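Appendix B. Extra example for self-study. Work through it before the problem class; the solution is given directly after the inputs so you can check yourself.
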Amino acid sequence: MEDFNEQKFTEAKDKTADNLPQGENAEYNKLLEMGKIRLCGLNLAKLEGLMESFGEKKFRASQIASWLYTKNAKNFDEMSDIKKELREKLKEEAYITDVSIKKKQISADGTLKYLLEYKDKNTAECVLMRFDNRANLTACVSSQIGCAMGCKFCATGQRGIIRNLEPYEILEQILTIQRDTGLKVTNVVFMGQGEPFNNYNNMMEAIRLINSCLMIGIRRITVSTCGIVPKIYDIAQEDLVPTLAISLHAPNSELRAQIMPVEKRYNIEDLKKALKFYTEKTGKRVTLEYVLIGKLTDTRDCAMELAHFMKDLKCNVNLIPYNPVDGALGFKKPDKKDVMKFKFILEASGKKVTVRLERGADIDAACGQLRGKDIR
Ligand code: SAH
Ligand code: SF4
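Solution. Structure tokens for the complete assembly:
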């Protein structure tokens, strides 16, 4: 386990997103000469560029996009309304994806966890959660392999940062779930491995793809951050603004610094200013996530202080009972009665408070348990 590390933080910052041209034939021809083109992750404009370079009509691009992103095709032969000649050309010049399922686990509560293997053999998880009382299917996606932020209670944090995920590698997590289950994902949360704001450009490009190709509304896309303050200002000013969730986890700087090294770089007061900017600029509410660690962050004093902190903030609160993590010694689950008391005190302040259901804990798919290992 390591503390916040400036150098690693800088190394982990955005890798360039896919930089395929938007429809310039010469560029495509150069790429085709270099090898096969990966289709997954290309938006409609880019697919149109590719079709033009094949000497095909533009409308072929929307047919292909529909097979890739709506009908979840696994191979070119499934693309039945595309003429055979073009399918053969696609087989020669292109491929759908290079991401594969390394392992799939099913929890007793219906949660699915996929361990995906990327081209360089690195692995990361994505999780599909179904809630019995709702039609929603929520995919929890990873934004990085590992994480540089070193939160003391989190399995991913103990892994350190390995690398950023590319936009298509994020999109692929949702497509894999859809291809495998035949179901349509309706909501996406960036709550898997990684700190999305340390991979900001790729995260934004992934959000644009999820929104435009998979047609998932921006209100149904939530990004969770441990509080990289400058990026909160940035995201509030994007054309496409997702819902924001903040891993707060403590009501004051002292306690927060004990469990979250990020506090030493961006403190809770500056975080609050940034959150106010976000809510005022976008009109949206933020969700405060708060991990209840037994006898540490679940006390009556913490609840009172948190109620005070959020009084003048447009927010909801999501309480997350701590999930045990191997190696994170000294933390324990909260007692049920302490969770209820905590909730009660916060509700008295007039905010909407939910307690996050523990999903998939039996397969290590619950919050904070993802570490990219093929351990079971
Ligand atoms: N890096 C981002 C996205 C991860 S979201 C972030 O931290 O916000 C995963 C959520 O689960 C975060 O709120 C995280 O703080 C929380 N979490 C991490 N470890 C946990 C644990 N052991 N038990 C419960 N929640 C945990
Ligand atoms: Fe990284 Fe989030 Fe885990 Fe902290 S809680 S180490 S920011 S993944």
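Self-check: The pocket of iron/sulfur cluster (ligand 2) is lined by residues 147, 149-151, 154, 156-157, 194-195, 226, 247 (CB under 6 Å). If your reasoning did not lead you there, revisit section 3.
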